[in-house]
Fold:
Amino acid sequence: MTTDNGTNANPGWRLHFGWGIGTLGASMLLNSFAALQLFYLTNVLGIAIATASLVLFAAKIWDWIANPLMGWISDRTQTRWGRRRPYLLLGGLVAGGAFIVFFTSAITPVSQSLVLVTLSLALVGTGYTIFNVPYMAMPSELVDDYKERTKMISWRVFFIGIGTMIGVSTQRMAELLGNGPEGYARMAAYVGIGILLFMAWSFFGTAGGRTYVRDKQSVSFFEQLRLGLQNKPFAALLGTKFTQLFGLFTSTAMSIFVVKYVLGKDNPGEWMILFTAVSFVAQTISIPAWTWMTKRYEKRATYMIATMVFSIASLSWLVASPQETVTFFCARALIKGFAAGGLLLMGQSMLPDTIEYDFRKTGLRREGVFSGLYSIVEKVASSFAPTLLGLGYAWFGFQSKAPTQTVEAIDGIRYCAAFLPCFYFAISMIPLYFYRLTERELKATGNP
Structure:
């Protein structure tokens, strides 16, 4: 059995805020990459889109090992600051520095080698892993109550919205800071420092929160993975989140292409900022509504409703054209933001529920293993979604750095934007159907 440090498990909004703000750095990193990595590789570095897609794939192979390994390491760590918190600082340092390295590659010798470009991408992913895996393991340690965890996660959803808005705005930042390679390099310096500061903030913001000492019982890394996947609610959530993240990251990665080529805007950065700002407002104000729905319908049904609303909004790209009004453009953003609030809140709040379920059944504290597996699907989706999107664009004849695109290529961008997210979300309904962990069932499982 594990022991804790004796602090209050549900200390209120200060700890919630202190933990949640770390997401701002992580979300800035993840969404900047989701929005720009494919565009930067093709339109700035001039790499053919099919080759760029393969580079993204190769850079993420390491994550298949690094994420669960990081969870295992954090479970077995013992320091004066607890098992998780030291990695929040280390992850911020690595992630912020690697972000700067990648987006300055066009003005450094790194751009002359696909190997170095791939390694710089892998280093960004490593920094994110060092931070995010221990970070996502913390809510189930810090908070006991089923509903209180939803409140805590709502802070994370709020900061995800801000981080998403900043991440998607990085294209416009690069344009304003000089456009071309120099503009991206300057943008990277500002955003990279922000990533470091906000990730580090969560280290200090969670001081005083409850921590557990490592289990004395020794269980091998692969045995913990096997036992973790035997947790049926967690396995169902993992499958759901994996496919849904493909849809969400596809939506983010395709945004700049849709605005530039389908809507025909010469200043895509400005339109992306508008879209993201409206989405953020809708996402933020939707949190109380989605929280209320969980009390009435439970989390699984609420998750399904949010999934269907987001899919409907994605299909509206079929009618996108240069003649589209600003009102219709913002209405789409409003609906997507509202649905995204539900998707994020449900997915994130269900994770600590499945971890507590494991603890009640086994008596073992292995939050890191679960957060590592959860994080790997996030990382795989964040890289593979743009990879598959890029291959789809290549199929329709998209040409990197071409001044204009063919009608077929533009139609391909439109079809990918409308149908790919819906395809992924439809698949996600299958594992979500098998998620049956309710508040009543959780309380009836074992003894905490």
